[in-house]
Design goal:
By secondary structure, the chain is mostly helical. It is 77% helix and 0% strand. It has four helices and no strands.
């Protein structure tokens, strides 16, 4: 049986937090610009609708113990608002780039984790 709580060292949580801050500081502005400006034109009311939909999705998924990405959820909300105005309101080139990056992320993450696993196993043994 899996323990109900995993032991998580505080230094590991700190390291993760520092990584998130560095990522936001160095590349986050591009993600925010893409979602907020490049997918479709957002007005205050359509932006509110997209964020409300994303927040509701995150709350429901969290209640169901489903791990989801808030960024992906927000992109879905913005796509929904854009679709409400018609396909012509969407920047399909940007959307294609986003979806391609999502498809590439899974095998790239798997390949890198295999590589790092064997690299660390070779360095530290067993």
């Amino acid at each position: 049986m899996v323990a109900s709580e995993a032991i998580m060292p505080k230094w590991l949580l700190l390291l993760g937090g520092v990584g998130i801050v560095i990522g936001l500081a160095t590349y986050g502005y591009r993600v925010i610009r893409t979602i907020g400006s490049n997918i479709t034109e957002l007005t205050p009311s359509s932006g509110f609708a997209a964020v409300l939909a994303a927040a509701a999705t995150v709350v429901i998924a969290s209640g169901a113990s489903l791990p989801i990405s808030t960024t992906h959820t927000l992109v879905g909300g913005v796509l929904g608002v854009g679709l409400a105005h018609g396909v012509a309101a969407l920047n399909l080139r940007v959307i294609g780039t986003i979806f391609t990056s999502w498809v590439v992320t899974l095998p790239a993450g798997a390949a890198l984790s295999i590589t790092f696993f064997y690299l660390l196993k070779g360095i530290f043994g067993a």
